[in-house]
Design goal:
Strand content: 5-15%
Strand order of the largest sheet: 1-2-3-6
Order of helices and strands: HEEEEEEHHHHHHHHEEEHHHHHHHHH
Number of strands: 9
Number of helices: 18
Helix content: 40-55%
Length: 445
Amino acid sequence: MAHLQRRKDLESQKRAPAKDSFVWDDEVPQLAARTRGKAHTWVVQTRRDGKTVRPTIGDVADYPVEIARAKAMVILEELADTSIGLDPDISLADFAERFLLDCQHQWKASTFGAHGKCVHAKIVPALGRIKIAALDRMDVHNWRRDMACAAGTKNRALAVLSSMVRHAELVGIRPPGKNPCAGLRRHQSDFKAAYLDAAGYADLNHVLDAQSEAFPRAVSCIRFIMFTGCRSGEAKAIRWDQLDGSRITLPDAKSGPKSIWLGKPARDLLASLPRTGPGIFAGEDMKELSKELGKFWKVVRKTLRRPKLRIHDLRHSYASVTVNLGYDLRVLGGLLGHRDIKTTAGYAHLDTARVADASERVGRHLGRAFAEPKAKPTRKAKAKPKPKPIPKPTLTPKAPHKRSSFARFVTSKLSLTDFCQTEGLDPIAFRRGLVAWRAQTGGRA
């Protein structure tokens, strides 16, 4: 019976359709590269008669992105006059509800809640009366300027409004490619991440050792974050059944499925932990672990005298160590679980070691380039012509006391001009005599 059941499962898996994945274009929001099994095609997604339709343009290999965009615009114009069951004069407040309803399946529950709060607290009160089709760049600029909140909150609100406008383009209320939020610079946040250096890690390790009996689960969880650079939420949620040799596979992290790669310290740490429940650190109760972490981190801040240090700063510190060890940003992105290299590029400023090394090498190169060229050493095998007689006998290189002036110059730190001024010598004549002296004695000028 078990054999028959496995056979049925395999047959059902073969009959199950391949899951689509989409990479959406930035310039034409309705255009996407769809991957389905081995097929890789361009599609356009829009609404027609109240339903979502996805006309196919062709294979990605046959159509460059510029041609695919042009074809997508033609398809969208052809379908633009089709009714979708929405009033083209709908206000932004009414369309906001439609936006949240249509898109809620695309987000996690926490993301949906955050977007809903942002819409009702920041967007609708200020822009709700404007028609979504008439929203222009000046409206968005004035709205963002007048928001009384932190820079990070302004950036999130702008991103949600931009998504709302893109959805209005998708359903045909607004023309494609006319998003008034596009290109607006984000406000610079005053947040600055804290990074632990070698001394900071040593101090933190002393606190972990001292508090290991009072906060055993929290200490283990913090050590795991230090060794892997994962997010605190990911560390709290990981389970034993997700452990797969040298990594932990997460089916649904912040940016989708990811792997937490385990170095030897992390593997040794997990091997030393007792299995008291499905959760590696949480055991049976996630809330208790969160409470313990909160209490323990207050102790860490107080002991280290760093009241603003966050658990998430351990992730930034992990990135700092990785970059300064010379690893490529794409490798760092794989370790941190970033889907977009632009996210990882935010850590590029941490590569101070290689920047300093580059500065040193460039400086040495320029120093050699601007240095006075040295005369080539003479070869004793070839007979050298006798030097021309020097007008002033006092500078004849054969005179012992004059040769000593050349020797003194070679061992001094003065320039030729300063040395001649100090000795009361003619610089031009002295230079000629110096050349002759070096040719005869092999001394270095």
